Amino acid sequence: MSLDELADKSSSEEIQVAQSDSKFRSLNPGPIPIPAAPSIRSLVDSVSDERLDVMASHQSENGSGSISTASSTVSSIESEKAAYEYLAQTPIKSTDAHLVEFSEAMRTVAKALRRVAEGKAAAQAEAAEWKRKYELEMAHKQQSKIKGCGSCVSNDLDKLASQLTLETSASDQLGCCGKHGICSHEVLQDVVPGPIPRPNHKMVGRKASFKLSWGCNGDKNGQHKHDFVSFEKGDITTAERSNKQILLKWESPPQTVLFITKPNSNNVHVLCAEMVRWLKEHKNINVFVEPRVSKELLTEDSSYNFIQTWDNDEEIKLLHTKVDLIVTLGGDGTVLWAASLFKGPVPPVVAFSLGSLGFMTPFPSEQYRECLDNVLNGPFSITLRNRLQCHVIRDAAKDELVTEDPILVLNEVTIDRGISSYLTYLECYCDSSFVTCVQGDGLIISTTSGSTAYSLAAGGSMVHPQVPGILFTPICPHSLSFRPLILPEYVTLRVQVPYNSRGHAWASFDGKDRRQLSPGDALICSISPWPVPTACVMDSTTDFLRSIQEGLHWNLRKSQSFDGPRD
Ligand SMILES: NC(=O)c1ccc[n+]([C@@H]2O[C@H](COP(=O)([O-])OP(=O)(O)OC[C@H]3O[C@@H](n4cnc5c(N)ncnc54)[C@H](O)[C@@H]3O)[C@@H](O)[C@H]2O)c1
Ligand SMILES: Nc1ncnc2c1ncn2[C@@H]1O[C@H](COP(=O)(O)OP(=O)(O)OP(=O)(O)O)[C@@H](O)[C@H]1O
Question: Which of 32, 269, 313, 556 has a Cα-to-Cα distance from 143 of 20 to 30 A?
């Protein structure tokens, strides 16, 4: 697809969403009076007719058509709510067939409206995604012009998207962003969507540029073997598998490091002060710290006046354009916290272990000089940890233009019963297919990085973080046959609290930011295009195996003694 076509697609999709919304508003005439009891039959009839219309138009139209289906039925939302209220106030005799039929019709209409609201949210998300990719591509082009690096330019947006989502599998050692390298850093620097930042004397210079490539160990002649399916003579075969370890190689030296540290820990505080000074004095590195840490360091010693920080959320949005590396000092929670600061691209993370478990924190803090030397010089292995992008869709806001901001999680999103003592009742869909109803304490939708966290405690498999997948793990399901699932990374999951749920559900994101989900609300999750690159001590697999063995004591058992019965 050319850039122009992309621009057209991006803008036309936005226009489509906007148009459908304006239709939404213009067709929503406001509340419809609650029908008096004698006229309820006529209301049932009219709703039943609308139900038929909805079904007919669903059959005859494609996906985008479903938005206009919503428009034609939106006027019944208010009447539906009014009718529910009316029904709640009026005792229903089980023998009253009319009221039962009416209530059924209302449910059908409500379901159709839900589908439309969700379709709209998905379309908005998709349009935003295309727009962002388009902006990235433009930035990439501009950057390449400045650098005179013609080979960096790719006119194919799909290629860029697949590079960002790791669908490309190749290694290339051919210089600047050769055919198979990932030049994401160049794409991401300098141009930032959003408001123009106010001039800041603390701003640092350009970011260091780097290249990601897939390693090809054991490949003697340097020829990389790709993972692809070939169809020679009608036979389907996969080529020999390559080593997919991802290497980060700096193309210019990194200049700026951001520290994210666990609060209320004296050890962390002392080490942070020492590392900051060492980086400045021995490596001439610019250092950013959190506002809390900046205050602490400056109160102690004014000679830390070289450190930089931020004042507000707008400045946090720009951090990824200034920072070459993130250093975390703490446990896994600190890595999650660091990732949560970045709603878009995330610079590589070097996680030093100062927590209790430290599954994602492989670097020993006692050897920080050696570790940082290795990382600053490069090349080093990284694990690209996928994140999930979660949208909460409110039933009450289905005819509003703006939905809640997406939330990115590195571990998982959990939907549970919170303080409710009732069973959680959740309807789950994968793309357009119904998956199941969860009846139990809740559901965990996890990344593969999160597979060793809450999902593991709920009986999910441990999955290597580079495996492209989404884990679907129930929490205490009240069923004998509910096994956890692992779904492919490209699907979109939708979990909704049905109208007839007895209680609310609660969503939490990496264990934080709890949000109530009322009957009618839904959560939509898919893999985000912005992974978290974490530096490895050895390589992705060695580090993972070490973590499950040393951190979780996986399959620890006393060895069987030599003496005893034999074959
Ligand atoms: N029953 C459970 O196991 C349970 C319950 C609630 C939350 N959690 C996890 O805690 C996470 C939040 O972590 P926190 O440190 O802010 O909270 P926290 O301080 O409560 O620590 C939770 C524990 O989970 C470990 N952990 C976190 N991410 C991990 C990962 N990817 N692999 C292996 N272990 C991991 C941490 O090291 C820590 O020991 C949530 O994302 C969730 O996965 C687990
Ligand atoms: N920079 C930060 N600002 C605010 N809160 C933070 C920050 N870093 C970590 N936290 C929070 O502090 C809590 C504890 O942090 P962390 O998990 O890193 O330490 P730990 O519990 O000692 O280690 P582990 O997770 O390995 O057991 C987490 O809930 C995390 O969200």
Answer: 313
Query: Tokens for 62?
Result: 């494609």
Domain 388-527 fold = Tumour Suppressor Smad4 (2.60.200)
Structural contact between residues 260 and 334, judged by C-beta atoms closer than 8 angstroms: yes
Give the Cα separation of 38 and 80 in Å (integer).
17
Q: Which of 415, 454, 463 to mutate to test the pocket of ligand 1 (most atoms within 8 A of CB)?
A: 454
pLDDT tens digits along 169-183: 333 333 333 333 333
CA–CA gap between residue 546 and residue 240 (Å, rounded): 27
Domain ranges for the chain, please list them. 3-21+38-89, 256-384, 388-527
Residues 454-459 have a mean pLDDT of 98
CATH class of the domain at 256-384: alpha beta
User: How many Å apart are CA 259 and CA 276, to the nearest integer?
Assistant: 8
| Residue 332 known to be catalytic | yes
CA 336 / ligand 2 centre spacing (Å): 8
Predicted confidence at residue 102, as pLDDT, reads: 84
The 3 state secondary structure assigned to 444-476 is EEECCHHHHCHHHHCCCCCCCCCCCEEEEEEEE
Q: Where are the beta strands (DSSP E) in 215-284?
A: 229-230, 237-238, 246-250, 256-261
Distance CA 517, CA 504 (A): 6
What rounded mean pLDDT belongs to the chain?
Answer: 76
The three-class DSSP label of residue 27 is: helix
From the list 45, 227, 324, 332, the catalytic residue is: 332
Q: Spell out the residues 6+ positions from residue 95 whose beta carbon is closer than 8 angstroms to its own.
A: none
Most confidently modeled of 145-149, 169-173, 392-396, 548-552? 548-552
ipTM: 0.95
Q: State pLDDT tens for residues 400-444.
A: 766 788 999 999 999 999 998 899 999 999 999 999 999 999 999
Q: Whose CA is nearest to atom 24 of ligand 1?
A: 453
